């Protein structure tokens, strides 16, 4: 595919011995040479224009080459000067740059470790290959198993430059003293679950150890993404974001990470990180990004302690269109009568995520019918809050699969309320003995994901049995009261 493209290429990388800021943690910048050079040199060329500007090329991939032996005249190509890794933790002054924070990752097999590639779609044999031996192709998105989606994720191509090319003196328009993370703002980013699950959580997993000393080089960059997630973008990086496809300058970096890590659905596996990170640490990252500093948590906790008989707060997500709680007003009154203060939380109402963060983090219990809103369980207070997910008929496993584990990783309480057939709006559409109502599992086995998507997820509301749902609410209410007012 690359060969068909014109040499409307641009490069990204670093050449030569760069002066870098070495050490971090404090504000003090120590300029110095990278110790332990390894003589390899990469050119990352983004061959873009044909695809980006000329829609007649319907190919979805935008190759990015490290090295452009056949396009030396493009001159846009620079390189990443590799640098050895000493195995130390990133961030300590004097330590070598540690690009990769994962344990036993395929990326650790890269010669010199100047570039760390996502090899999650490589088989184990080829995961051993070094960049020098073969071209690396990386689609920097997590959902490698979804062929249809991945066809729309731009591809980055990496090759090692020959020594003579490396000495050619690639021009750097911009020299960065921090490594680059090549990631994408594309994929299912418009859906909040995917924005976190496949975007920001993986990006955080990949670069959090660099403590914002990383430059985000973003494919499919767009202003909506930058605006909607601006707190997270600046929480990840101290630097301006590079719009990889449209920025015409040559950027030079001391190292690069291409692609992001993925530990599972909304998951952080501490044992897979060198610094034992957890999902609670990711929550803390979100708290730091969104929190308005005027109310430190200690102050809140003191207030709560002084209140004699605290009413725990329950946030109830109010969906529109599908998976609506048809008796929502009665459910809210029920929760009040059980002893909660109730907030009705609007879904996708255009409010900035920072205000969503504030609303959700104030809740002791977050309640909602299965949907992307519940991703905001990440905003709840770890170790204290509870998530109550209402699963419509036919999707209890799907619902549980999305959020139960993440809730546990936040050390919070997970509760699931499975709607029965007589609580589903599908009773108005199907006769009582229809397999869709009678045996949803059998119906799904027979008709597959289409039935789930169209009927159980896309065509169903619920009307909750107030008696049974009240029991669940009372249980969560007494749990909330049992918790000491001040958290750890
Ligand atoms: C990777 O390379 C090392 C050293 O060359 C070798 O010992 C190891 O068996 C290789 N692993 C695989 C999966 O090929
Ligand atoms: C990782 O963190 C957990 C909890 O924070 C702790 O119990 C465990 O001992 C830590 N493991 C290592 C290897 O540091
Ligand atoms: C679910 O409720 C919404 C809002 O009331 C309504 O627009 C929609 O038609 C309902 N869907 C079904 C399947 O009843
Ligand atoms: C709804 O069905 C459940 C069993 O699936 C039953 O226990 C309950 O009594 C029914 N409720 C009504 C209002 O019929």
From TrEMBL:
Topology class, membrane: Single-pass type II membrane protein
Locations listed in the record: Golgi apparatus membrane
Keyword Membrane found: yes
Single annotated GO MF: pentosyltransferase activity
Pathway: Glycan metabolism
GO cellular component: Golgi membrane
Domain Glycosyltransferase 61 catalytic: residue ranges: 279-384
InterPro entries cross-referenced by the UniProt entry: Glyco_transf_61_cat (IPR049625), Glycosyltransferase_61 (IPR007657)
Segments of this protein annotated with the region Disordered: 293-316
Membrane in keyword set: yes
A Pfam family matched in the record: Glyco_transf_61
Domain of life: Eukaryota
TM annotation in the entry: 37-54
Keyword terms: Glycoprotein, Glycosyltransferase, Golgi apparatus, Membrane, Transferase, Transmembrane, Transmembrane helix
PANTHER family, per database record: GLYCOSYLTRANSFERASE, OS01G0956200 PROTEIN
Annotated protein name in UniProt: Glycosyltransferase 61 catalytic domain-containing protein
